[in-house]
Design goal:
Layout (H helix, E strand, L loop, with lengths): L1 E2 L4 E2 L10 H9 L7 E5 L5 H9 L4 E6 L2 H12 L7 E5 L11 E6 L13 H7 L6 H11 E12 H11 L4 E11 L4 E9 L8 E8 L7 H7 L7
Parallel strand pairs: 3-4, 3-6, 4-5, 6-7, 8-10
Antiparallel strand pairs: 1-2, 7-9, 8-9
Helix pairs in contact: 1-2
């Protein structure tokens, strides 16, 4: 059980546990003006609830292919202040069809492309691209977004360039943040925001460092996550 400032997340029944990646994306994605948001690969529903906290008007759809994850996400939403604004859906994103087009899709996707897989089927679906490769993810975003809609994703840095190549000319990169775990180190994660539009964009690029060399959290990480973590 993870307690945040305004909600609690249970992850006992979900293959993907609460982690830094989800919190980073939920805090970083620019959702202030969105009316309808899709949290694809929702897992525990943590990103969906972070979106709900940050945008009091948004309707949020939380989708996952794993039934146990959807049950957990539903329970977490129902125990939050925003359960009535979160709709949970058990479906393969590749097969998902919806009457509405989304203003924003946020996604912490499965990302291990060729790594050795675990024996746990649900964990493989959550962590590996066995069910959702980059091409399928881009195609789903292109299909489900409004014109001008945005797609925000977090990936290991070594896979981010590959994802950008897959998205090229279909979704245009507008913002990118490389995430460094400890000051002076190489980036381990990359946050990217794409736009469904016809014209190429010049992306804004920056770097976010989580820890100083001594282990303390940086001020920039504190500012990003202070509305959620109890420790800040």
């Amino acid at each position: 059980m993870f307690r945040f400032k305004q909600f609690t997340i249970s992850d006992e029944g979900c293959a993907m546990k609460v982690g830094t990646d989800g919190v980073l994306l939920g805090a970083w994605a620019d959702v202030a003006d969105d009316g309808v948001v899709l949290d694809a690969c929702t897992g525990t529903g943590i990103i969906a609830l972070m979106v709900a906290q940050r945008n009091a008007e948004a309707s949020i759809y939380a989708l996952d292919i794993v039934p146990e994850a959807v049950v957990e996400a539903r329970g977490n939403a129902d125990h939050s202040p925003w359960g009535d604004r979160v709709r949970t859906i058990c479906c393969d994103l590749k097969e998902y069809r919806e009457d509405v087009r989304f203003d924003h899709i946020v996604c912490n996707p499965p990302y291990f492309v060729d790594a050795l897989q675990a024996t746990d089927v649900a964990r493989n679906l959550a962590r590996h691209t066995v069910s959702l490769d980059f091409e399928s993810l881009v195609a789903a975003a292109e299909r489900l977004l409004k014109d001008g809609g945005r797609f925000s994703v977090i990936l290991p840095t070594e896979g981010a360039a590959h994802f950008r190549r897959v998205a090229f000319s279909r979704l245009w990169l507008r913002r990118v943040t490389d995430v460094v775990t400890t000051e002076g180190g190489a980036p381990k994660r990359t946050l990217m925001e794409f736009v469904r539009c016809a014209q190429p964009l010049m992306p804004r690029c920056d770097v976010l460092t989580i820890h100083h060399r001594g282990g303390d959290y940086t001020e920039e990480y504190r500012r990003l996550t202070q509305d959620f973590y109890l420790m800040f």
